[in-house]
Write a structure and sequence with these properties.
Chain B: One of its GO terms (cellular component) is plasma membrane. Chain B: It is found in: Cell membrane. The complex is a heterodimer of chains A (241) and B (156). Chain A is an all-alpha fold and 241 residues long. Chain A contains 13 helices and no strands. Chain B has 5 helices and no strands. Helices cover 64% and strands 0% of the residues of chain B. Classes of the chains: A mainly alpha (241), B mainly alpha (156).
Chain lengths: 241, 156
């Protein structure tokens, strides 16, 4: 038998420990995956979006600050680094495709990178978003760690940029496959490249489910978009604003 | 799974640790170089390039490295959940400027995908000279189906 006081104590203890939020993240993701598979992999039931939604509701309801949550979730977040390095494996497996397509790849990535930053900044500016928001938007298609660095150097808010990067990833994961089907693009390289370009790692994860070739091209786009955007965004902002 | 049972089991268990260590050490070297030289690249991206160079030198990844990478990359989506929850910190701004932000992100994502895909297809036809795209049937590793990940390796 547990008294109310005892339960309260357990909650106070657990809610501050990394274990609870690590477990919550894993369970939320598993529920997201279950819904995703149950809906026949509808892009609208994206597991990352669903898991984040459940966890945001949980944090708001229990009045838990994000820093407390992140204390537990950081163990999962940390694996992004080694996972990025692991992209070397598909890249190596498809090295022949990559070498053959080096020039088209470069052209597409420069075009995509400039489109991503310029269009986001332009639309947000026209719709009356404030300066900080607009600047934080510029690197939104880049993978989180690089995007935050770019945001800081151009006067944006790094944590706001991180949030926008995630919204972008989810938009890309939900609407990207539909758009590619609608545009009748069947080349796996073009699919992966565009998904990785617009939606970084989240797009890469989705491309992986299309085919390993699409996944590795998405990985290349994600890795190099960071580099191109870091160089292009300061120039672009000088021109646009 | 059957092929794993042929050799001493500890060999494959340690090989997995070796693959993980390789990934982490590549990232570490990447971070050290990036911070030492103030490069505008993130450490893991440099680590990725390092690992490709390592594969080129060694003639490719070991089978365990291949399996380890496939397992990690098949679950890539999970790794983005903690960052996605970070949106909760900016609720106020999303409430006041939400429409502008979401419309900008949506329009930009659609444009970026279309421009990148068409630019690649155009440039590939113009400069690639390879003709048809290499066709690949379906994902070998289905990240949301835990049953299909076995049996890909073949006997050593």
């Amino acid at each position: 038998m547990m008294s109310k006081r005892g339960l309260g104590d357990i909650w106070v203890y657990l809610s501050a420990s990394p274990l609870l939020w690590l477990a919550a993240t894993l369970v939320a993701y598993l529920i997201g995956v279950r819904i995703y598979t149950r809906t026949n992999r509808s892009p609208f039931a994206n597991p990352v979006a669903l898991a984040a939604l459940f966890l945001v509701i949980l944090l708001v309801v229990t009045d838990t600050p994000y820093t407390t949550y992140f204390n537990g979730a950081q163990f999962i977040h940390f694996l992004l680094g080694p996972a990025t390095v692991a992209l070397a494996v598909p890249l190596w497996r498809h090295r022949a495709d990559v070498r053959r397509g080096a020039l088209p790849l470069t052209i597409a990535m420069v075009a995509g990178s400039i489109t991503a930053a310029a269009s986001a900044v332009f639309v947000a500016h026209v719709l009356g978003a404030d300066r900080e928001t607009v600047l934080s938007l510029a690197p939104k298609s880049v993978t989180t760690p690089i995007a935050m660095g770019i945001s800081e150097s151009i006067g944006g808010i790094p944590s706001l940029t991180a949030a926008m990067v995630m919204v972008t990833g989810i938009i890309g994961a939900v609407f990207g496959p539909l758009l590619l089907r609608w545009l009748k693009i069947r080349d796996d390289r073009a699919k992966g490249l565009s998904m990785g370009m617009a939606a970084h790692g989240v797009g890469t994860a989705i491309s992986y489910t299309m085919s390993p070739l699409a996944g590795s091209f998405a990985g290349i786009a994600m890795a190099l978009n960071g580099l191109i955007t870091a160089l292009a965004v300061p120039l672009l902002l000088a021109l646009l604003l | 799974m059957a092929f794993r049972r042929r050799g001493p089991p500890y060999m494959t268990e340690f090989a997995m640790v070796g693959a993980l260590a390789t990934l982490v050490v590549c990232q570490l070297i990447g971070e050290i170089v990036v911070h030492g030289l103030h490069l505008p690249v993130p450490g893991p991206v440099l680590g990725l390039l390092l690992l490709v160079a390592w594969f080129a030198w060694r003639g490719g990844p070991t089978q365990t490295m291949g399996t380890t990478a496939d397992v990690i990359l098949s679950n890539l989506s999970l790794l983005f959940v903690p960052a996605a929850v970070g949106i909760v910190q900016h609720g106020q701004r999303f409430l006041t400027q939400g429409p502008a932000i979401v419309i900008a992100l949506f329009a930009s994502s659609i444009l970026t995908i279309a421009v990148t895909a068409y630019a690649f297809l155009w440039a590939d036809r113009r400069f690639g000279g390879t003709g048809a795209a290499p066709a690949e049937p379906a994902a070998r590793h289905d990240p949301f189906d835990t049953d299909t990940n076995s049996g890909t390796g073949g006997a050593p």
